[in-house]
Amino acid sequence: MKQGHHIYQQGFQHELAFYQESLNSTSLSSIILPCDIVPKAFLAFKAVDIEVEQSLAQMLILPDAVPYFTVGAQTLPIASIQHYLLRALDALQGLHEAGWIHADLKQEHFVEYQGQVKLIDFEQVQSVRQQAITEMNATPRYMAPELFHGEVKTIQSDIYALGIIFYEWLSGQKLYAENYTEWAYLHCQRLQIELPEKLLSFQSLLSKMLAKHQAARFDNIYAIKQALVSEIA
Questions:
Q1: Which of 58, 103, 166, 216 could form a disulfide with 124 if both were Cys (CB 3.0 to 4.6 A apart)?
Q2: Is the dihedral of CA 140, 159, 118, 10 positive or negative?
Q3: Could you tell me if 198 and 73 are in contact, meaning their C-beta atoms sit under 8 angstroms apart?
Q4: DSSP character for 133?
Q5: 3-class SS at 208?
Q6: With a threshold of 0.85, does the pTM exceed it?
Q7: Residue 61 pLDDT more than 60?
Q8: Taking the domains of the chain in order of start, what are their residue ranges?
Q9: Could you tell me which of 98, 114, 21 has the C-alpha nearest to residue 64?
């Protein structure tokens, strides 16, 4: 947008660069939405009435997609919930195996498009090999405890965020905190996993996804999938 905050402009440029790179990656094509990257002049040619930031030379066009976590978990049988979670895990595993972490996962970043689960919103995406500490730009609701201590984002911080997504979906309740300090206290000390009796078979899985210490947390998506299949048999 014209006169938009520079942080959002930087985020868009970062996401645009990721999509540009994805055009040459077969491994990413199965987990991201198909995109069109067009010159800004294209909008004027098509008589699209939208105000854009003057410094942007290109625009990113994505198709509409349906939010994934819309069906209430407690209305589904256990086998369907297991399948639902595995499909989300497949998408994130694809991103990690392609060499990227999402770095700002939220429930709304999982969508369904043409029968496939896709990921969206890559403003903070970074290479799994990146070791430099970046500006803290994750969402406190989904932040792993180590991020509150200024540590780098990793596959395990993605796994923690996904654990929060799964926990809120399975429990049917949203975590709540009034400010950043309270979120830090919640994630670093106070978080307790409590699921409805029907869904207690998922509690062990969530506990290991949401372990406060990285050494006790799953360190890859494949291990989560193996646990999900073996524990929910």
A1: 103
A2: positive
A3: no
A4: P
A5: helix
A6: yes
A7: yes
A8: 6-61, 66-231
A9: 114
